[in-house]
Design goal:
Blueprint: H1 12-23, H2 27-36, H3 52-63
Length: 64
Amino acid sequence: MSQNRFPDGWDEDTVQRVLAHYGEQTEDEALAEDEAGIQPSETVMNAPHDLVSKVRELIAKRHS
């Protein structure tokens, strides 16, 4: 049995289009795209790997 090489709903054409999009993107365009995905009430930061689960727990508690 062969495994699908792509996520569900993806195919070779989709992968090539995504690669082209990000391959042709300028740094300014990439930054704008990243910033567009962040809500004004959110903060993006680095966290040590061993603390990620604790941070997720705190976020889940706050949202519940």
